[in-house]
Amino acid sequence: MQLHEFSDKKSLNVQLANRIKDNLQNALERNNQAFLAVSGGKSPIELFEILSHMALDWDKITIVLVDERCVDKTHTDSNERLVKDYLLKQNAKNASLIGLHHDPEDLKSLEAQIASLPPFDVVILGMGEDGHTASLFPYSEELKIGLDEEAKSIVKTNPKSAPYQRISLTKKRLCNSHAIFLPLIGSKKQAVFNKALLNTDPMIMPISAFLHNNHINMQVMYAPE
């Protein structure tokens, strides 16, 4: 894990967008395709806006959701809607998107689809104030499955501390990647990050499963509010 600090949120997002662009461009040059896994919520909106203007062969880039709430795709809390509204536009309008459908009948086919993908070139994670990441929430009944090294690629979760059922990529699937970025903004997120550095139990702080993993390229980027 490497920690990078920035003077403000804008500087962080510009630098992060450039690093993501470089990683995706390298993947395109190697493989003629690239895979970007993104988290939802309000935090990445500014980053998505910057990325959407990046000059890349977006028609060769596939965007995959890290997690999704079990709501309609047009719902204001849908991560798929967020990505379509803020990332799949401008230069990035022709990128492909793999959403996480929540119809129980589709879960097997979705699992097969996600499992068949190559390693992600870039993963953008988020972190909640309870230490959750993706939709891997502390103390949830499904957390052990989501963290299991032998797990499948997706897990359906029922968080006790947040609304809606969720579908999340598992730790195993997320760690099968070339680079993972965790942007953190503000003193509250900094405090949670510092706590997770000390608490190595991912059942209490799920983000710890990534911060203390020496086998992944984990890049943490912090800026004050």
Detailed description of the structure:
The chain has a single domain, classed as Rossmann fold, CATH 3.40.50.1360. 33% of the residues lie in helices and 19% in strands. It contains eight helices and ten strands. The strands form two sheets. A seven-stranded parallel sheet has the order 1-10-9-6-2-3-5. Strands 4-8-7 form a three-stranded antiparallel sheet. α2 links the parallel β2 and β3. α1 crosses α2. The two termini are 23 Å apart.
Q: So what's the overall shape? A: globular
What CATH calls the topology is Rossmann fold
- Major sheet characteristics: 7 strands, parallel
Helix content: 25-40%
What distance lies between the first and last C-alpha atoms, to the nearest angstrom? 23 Å
Rg from Cα: 16 Å
* CATH architecture name: 3-Layer(aba) Sandwich
List the helices and strands and how they pair.
Elements: E1 2-5, H1 9-31, E2 34-38, H2 45-52, E3 61-65, E4 67-69, H3 79-86, E5 96-98, H4 107-116, E6 122-124, H5 143-147, E7 154-157, E8 166-169, H6 171-175, E9 180-185, H7 187-198, H8 208-211, E10 218-223
Parallel strand pairs: 1-10, 2-3, 2-6, 3-5, 6-9, 9-10
Antiparallel strand pairs: 4-8, 7-8
Helix pairs in contact: 1-2
Keywords:
Rossmann fold, 225 residues, 7-stranded parallel beta sheet, alpha/beta, globular, 10 strands, 8 helices, 3-stranded antiparallel beta sheet
